[in-house]
Write a structure and sequence with these properties.
This protein is mainly alpha-helical. It has five helices and no strands. It has one domain: Up-down Bundle (Four Helix Bundle (Hemerythrin (Met), subunit A)), CATH 1.20.120. The protein is about 80% helix and about 0% strand. The structure holds heme C (HEC). Heme C binds next to helix 1, helix 4 and helix 5.
């Protein structure tokens, strides 16, 4: 009977130590998943712009980007360098978070413009999005290799 508390104790230790490194990986995967979502939706919009797929869901694709962008900052809040994120994300947090919030606003406005003004107006928005993606990546993203 006396052994039981010892067993419980070592289990608790395991639980306390294991998730720490796993959760760093989770944090990185989470923010990369959101970026990938925006990337895939941008790819769909690129195909619409090229006329290679139907444009029926143009507004919906733009809404998905806006929704993903609105969740992105939360995913970067934990200060976990790694993946392709430069440490500058957290060193320059005020600038980084402003860029991300501006991007969320820009894409929300872009989705509205697409809905109310149609395809041509939406396409102009996409060019502005690309500038925002690139502007932030130039500052805060590095290639893994
Ligand atoms: C405010 C800054 C910011 C904006 C805006 C932004 N990104 Fe990113 N993006 C990052 C950072 C930082 C990373 C690196 C994340 C990591 O690997 O931990 C990243 C990573 C990525 C990745 C790589 C994900 C992976 O699997 O490693 C893709 C793809 C990507 N972004 C696409 C986009 C697209 C498309 C847009 C615009 C529609 C965009 N991003 C807008 C900051 C931004």
């Amino acid at each position: 009977m006396r052994r039981i508390p010892i067993v419980l104790c070592s289990c608790a230790l395991l639980l306390a130590t294991l998730p720490v490194s796993a959760s760093d990986q989770d944090v990185i995967q989470f923010r990369e998943a959101i970026m990938k979502t925006m990337n895939e939706q941008s790819a769909a919009l690129g195909e619409i712009a090229a006329g290679s797929i139907p444009d029926d869901n143009l507004v919906a694709h733009m809404q998905v980007i806006a929704l993903a962008a609105s969740t992105a900052l939360k995913a970067f809040e934990p200060k976990v360098p790694g993946g392709e994120a430069k440490p500058d994300v957290w060193a320059n947090w005020a600038d980084f978070s402003k860029r991300m919030m501006d991007f969320a606003q820009q894409t929300a406005a872009g989705a509205k413009i697409a809905k109310t003004q149609g395809k041509d107006a939406a396409m102009v928005q996409l060019i502005n999005y690309a500038d925002s993606c690139k502007g932030c990546h130039d500052m805060y993203r590095q290639n893994k290799n």
